[in-house]
Amino acid sequence: MDITLFAIFFAACIGAGATGAMFSPGPWYQALAKPRWTPPNWAFPVAWTTIYICISFAGARVAGMEGSSYAMAFWAMQAAFSTLWTPVFFGLRRLRGALLVMGPLWLAVLGCTITMFQLDFWAGIGFLPFMAWVTVAAALNASVARLNPDQASRDMSD
Known about the structure:
- By secondary structure, this protein is mainly alpha-helical.
- It has one domain (3-18, 44-147).
- The protein has six helices and no strands.
- α1 runs parallel beside α4 (69-91), α3 (43-62) packs antiparallel against α6 (121-147) and α4 (69-91) runs antiparallel to α5 (95-119).
């Protein structure tokens, strides 16, 4: 594995993750009705740190391989939709709108997982934690939207 490639992929992850600092959950999220199985707050930074390391590892393993174009395209797609989800959910507070982002995100992570496995077993393994997490996140997003049907979106016209 090329450490420079790993650093580039990890920097992309940090960039995507920066939206979490810009649009933090805060009191608004704490006040929402959530299902009993919602992960504890401490689990989110642990999960994301683990995911970012694993998918950077996966990207670095396959980026230079012959035939990696689809894997890299799915990697870019998941990064884009992952970056978009946070401002839609936490910034705009559009619970159902975030589900419209979650669908392509889930498909991108699935596509990346499959194409990574086709190229390199360990790269595919590297995407499994993200596949599990995005599945839980999609279910959590759907549950929060269902449990908070009257939640108003944030007015950004000011």
